[in-house]
Amino acid sequence: MNELEEGTALRLDFGKLRAIGERGADVIPVVLQHVDSGEVLFVAYANEKALAETLATKRAVLWSTSRNELWRKGDTSGDVLDLVEVRVNCEQNSLLYRVRPRGGVCHTRNVEGHTRRRCYYRRLTGPDGGLAVEE
Amino acid sequence: MNELEEGTALRLDFGKLRAIGERGADVIPVVLQHVDSGEVLFVAYANEKALAETLATKRAVLWSTSRNELWRKGDTSGDVLDLVEVRVNCEQNSLLYRVRPRGGVCHTRNVEGHTRRRCYYRRLTGPDGGLAVEE
Question: Any long-range contacts for B122-125 (C-beta under 8 Å, 24+ apart)?
């Protein structure tokens, strides 16, 4: 088991944004939301190219800050997110993709072996740093 | 009128995360979600201190990356966000604060002069870069 991704201890990676900044990527955060249930699925990043392709192809396209390339969500896993609309915040420095998943969303799997329907499947139990798993 | 914050032209600030990275702030993105309606309210940033105070005081506390200080949402505006729960994603590099607003949320105001209930009040109308305002 991958402790970070599936364990019950809080081990936040506070260096993520600094690493993106150091790499000089022109990206902004994108919130992915299920348009029907309202569930927040995950946060990713987009540059101009990813946003343009998202609007053109009507599916969620992000920028992978680790691989430094376009990430057409679902190309490998089949878990495509069909785009319903894109929203922008007041300060125009983040985006909200409202989507409809064709299958699962997260790359982790639940006890039944299916990819989870969102990446926020763990809740902080309190200031002690414990996590509770909810499918 | 502030064109960037209230206009209908898309002018995304893709330099936001690079600026955070250059400042060396140890922060991760936080999605703020209304726990009852499911609406995504805005994206902000938190460091360890902000998260600890959020859990201790049961209200949303963020880290202001522009002022470089704790941002106790609502201290100035009165628009406090009461905390219901905090969730973490699989990779432990972002957070989801599920909250219940006491009043408005955004600092922009609608036609009736009230602070808006979310910052994502504009929708991209298509690849041309236009924005449609929805209260």
Answer: B122/A87, B122/A88, B122/B8, B123/A85, B123/A86, B123/A87, B124/A55, B124/A85, B124/A86, B124/A87, B124/A88, B124/B10
A116 to chain B, minimum CA–CA distance in Å? 10
Report yes or no: B81 and B74 within 8 Å, Cβ to Cβ: yes
Please provide residue B18's backbone torsions phi and psi, each rounded to the nearest 5 degrees: -65, -40
Angstroms from A29 CA to nearest CA on chain B: 8
Q: Which residue in B122, B29, B25, B40 sits closest to A43, CA to CA?
A: B29
pLDDT tens digit string along B80-127? 999 999 999 999 999 999 999 999 999 999 989 999 999 999 999 988
Most A-contacting residue of B10, B88, B110 (CB-CB within 10 A), to test interface: B88
Residues of B whose CB is below 8 A from A17: 17, 20-21, 25, 27-29, 45
Full-model pTM: 0.96
Ordered alpha helix ranges (H), chain A? 3-6, 16-23, 48-57
Q: Do B4 and A91 touch (CB under 8 A)?
A: yes
Q: How far apart are CA A5 and CA A73, in angstroms?
A: 19
Phi, psi of B23 (to 5 degrees): -80, -10
Inter-chain residue contact A45 with B17, CB threshold 8 Å = yes
Chain B CB contacts of A131 below 8 Å: 88
CB A95 within 8 A of CB A46: yes
ipTM of model = 0.95
Which residues in chain B are contacts of A37 at CB distance < 8 A? 38
